[in-house]
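Re-run with default settings, no changes from the original entry. Doing this only to confirm the output is reproducible before filing.
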Amino acid sequence: MNIFKNLFPENLYHSYIVEGEPVSTSASLCEFLKNKEGKDIEILCQNYDSFAIADSELIKEWHSQKSIDGNKKICIIGAKFINHDAERTLLKMIEEPKENTHFFIIVSNSLILLDTIRSRTHIIKPNFIENLSLKNISDNQEMTKEVENFLKSSLKDRLEIITKIIKSHEDEENGGSLRYYSIEFLNEIEKVIYKKWRDKKEDTNLIFILEEIREKRSYLNYPGAGVKMILEHTALVI
């Protein structure tokens, strides 16, 4: 059964954010919408390691064109990383919707997107845990083990782990791979800290750590933000 069954109304809203692994989720969503809407739709489905301003301008051009034979137009964007300049172009389209046009932005975690986009879209979380804002975006056991090792290590060892992370992705940073990995890494740390906070809600230090993680993670969507500096800051505050 398609994971999207019963998650959408009969008449689609203009814009959605869908949480999930971008490539596989976009494929599943595309299949679902084709079956749901029938033949009278025009679908643009694109996946990106890094969704940049040039990509958003192409989407904007597509958005401005009339649909074929008056068909419903659907744009599905799956992205591991979206920079904020590109987001602002998407926001403009979301704020000024064309008739019979629908947007689906697929990211690992909706919290990485601008507040203004989240406030103007419907957020769909096909798979979720008790606290919906802390969805487990990765079932990768290797990631889980790395985070466990990171959290129990000394500060010196944490900084060495960060150096290894940077080096292993340094040739892919412009493609968004390093930022995507770092976001998942911080998400996994956040889950661990959140579980501790659930049992000790009076612990103000844990609240501080959660706030720091969420704030610094949002910076990772800015191309000029230093990934190494953000990860090192996290190593210091936890």
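The CA atoms of residues 148 and 189 lie 8 Å apart. Residues 177-199 form the longest helix (23 residues).
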